[in-house]
Amino acid sequence: MLRSLRACWRLTRVIVHVLHGLVIVWWRFGTLDAAGRRERVLWWSRALLRHLGITLVVRGSPRPGAKLFVANHISWLDIVAINATAPARFVSKAEVRRWPVLHRLVSAADTLYLEREKRRDALRVVHQVAEALQAGDTVAVFPEGTTGTGHELLPFHANILQAAIATETPVQPIALRYSDRRATISAAVAYVGDTTLVQSLWWVARADGLQVTATLIEAQGTRHLDRRALAQRVRGLIEEALAA
């Protein structure tokens, strides 16, 4: 009973915070430069984690300048956790544009959308990511292509890494781990199967002592590399960090 009441209180705060975010997007974002937007995204993301009762632990530092963040994928919370660490532009599935209200916040952060059902769309997104990297942006991708439970990594798809290779932009792996009060992997966060966004929000809000650890691994050079070899190397580094 107490956990449910606490969850309701947390979700009430989340709703207010999301509405505040929409106000910022509608009335402030257009007047801010890139640095100002990043500061707002950083603040908003950290506050959202706090409202959900999630503690953020960051290990390592983001590499200065343009880079491609490559992270394991467990939940919609991954985007929040990375933005609370070092704001980035994300490559996301096109279905996110159909999420009520939230799609406005996601789109305001210059998200790049991928139509996964269309094979040729991947090439278009690779070109868009390359252009963003050449412009000095930080872009974040989830090469597993879908969410997992957090217990093991899924195979990495290498195509998106071609953008970093083509522009000779460093790739910085990020290992994300969600744990509970007992320091074991939390099942409440995994956004898998037929779980809806509403169900996921409720489970996260009811969870006790959630912590997300974002480990920023040393950036990897990409010059003259094969994308499959790069994907294998990055996957190994993330796997090693998660096991530590």
From TrEMBL:
Keyword Lipid metabolism: yes
Pathway participation: Lipid metabolism
Keyword list, A-Z: Acyltransferase, Lipid biosynthesis, Lipid metabolism, Membrane, Transferase, Transmembrane, Transmembrane helix
Domain of life the protein comes from: Bacteria
Molecular function GO labels: 1-acylglycerol-3-phosphate O-acyltransferase activity
Transmembrane segments: 12-29
Tagged with keyword Transferase: yes
Xref: CDD domains: LPLAT_AGPAT-like (cd07989)
InterPro entries: Plipid/glycerol_acylTrfase (IPR002123)
Protein name per its UniProtKB record: 1-acyl-sn-glycerol-3-phosphate acyltransferase
Organismal lineage: Bacteria, Pseudomonadati, Pseudomonadota, Betaproteobacteria, Burkholderiales
